[in-house]
Amino acid sequence: MSGFKNYFDDIVKIDPTYGFMIGIKNKSTLSHYTNHLSDSYLKQLYHIYKKYKNKNDSELKLHIDYIKYHIKYKIYLYNLLTSYENHIISFEYDNKIIYPPNKSYELSRRKDFKLYIKTLIARLKESLKLKITVPRLICKNFLKQIEKYKDYSELYDYIKHHYLNKCRKTIGLCHLPNGKNIYKILILNNLGFYKSPKQIHNLGLKLIKKHMNAVAHFYSSREEFFKDCLKYSLYIYEVIIDKYFYYKPPHPFIIKKVPEELEHNRSLAYYNDIENAVFVNLRFYKECNKNTLYSLLMHECFHQYHYLFMKYHKLPKYKIHGYNNITLLEGFAHYMEIYCENYDDDNNEYSLLRKMRLVVDTGINYYGWTYEKAFNYMNKYLPNRIEDNKTELNRYIDIPAQSLCYVIGKYEIIKMRDNFIKNKKGTIKDFHHKLLINGTTSLKFIKNIL
């Protein structure tokens, strides 16, 4: 894995923002913002590709192959504007909350970000010539989100007066040049192994059964919702960890409210490694089912546990952040949900949502579903989650294929667990230790060592 470590070090050198977000704090990471759209950055990325393209390392090959396609197909042009995790809102939040206070460093980052905005406008113009535009509905959402930020008036005016009316009415990658090929590349990059869109779509259809027969009970206030989040997370810390793991963090999980300025730009819940906290979005309290909140907290708490485990065992940064195999990260967190008391996979709202992602993500990005078809499909199965369903759809449009990792990772881990226990290789605690001890590597690598 020495080849991967060297590759990881080279990536950090050209990407100070990434370096800061994984915990590297020096003058470069604190005072710079990485312009991933600039010719300079792309040239440096290409040099890294040439340097490592012939290395015999399976983990490294996944990353190097993606760099090749990223540059060849200009994948960086395909999601220039996003309403899910909007880059501008994230940048403003990070400066306010995440970065340590230092006026000089902040001014330097803002100077870099100003150049990024100019590059973004240039890339938007380039994308128009190549007929690679974002969906009109995403563009409208983006404009609404950044309207209050006066520092970005030049970008706002360009998009509103020159770009918006040229945006496409379709929403899937498949409607863009090389879109279907790019979607397959994103599947491979996210999963760490390849499954065809057809296989994934059909798997989702097969898994979706008759759901939600039980009566759903929803929260009546933000306070009630957050109180239960704290209660369930404490139970997970005090009971679940002792039952299934050797390592136990010294303190209970940290649960925070999503800041109000981010509520319309974030999902129902997520874990932020740099803040070492699980965030819950109180905007969705009316759509959160009391019967399945437990599994939601289980998922996010075990994201936090996963990172704490790796840091406790002093894994090097390249094993924690460099591999970054989403199928293991999200698959493990989703897998842990099955250990909730009275867990019923066929009548669990969040389990159903993850299965639906296989159908809807592929439906949009490979089979060309319209927004109306995708929205109606989600509302058919989850009729009480209208606002969250909208957020989910924005996610599949903005970051295609990422949502596929949850269910696929979960079932791969279950197969490995069952084989491990069947062949008497150890206890469930032994399995979980071996699953996590090599960092966020690919499931293929983990299968080989198990």
UniProtKB/TrEMBL annotation:
InterPro entries, alphabetically?
A: DUF885
Stored Pfam families: DUF885
What PANTHER family does the database record attribute to this sequence? DUF885 DOMAIN-CONTAINING PROTEIN, GLR0591 PROTEIN
Q: What is this protein called?
A: Uncharacterized protein
- State the species of origin: viral metagenome
Q: What is the lineage of its organism?
A: unclassified sequences, metagenomes, organismal metagenomes
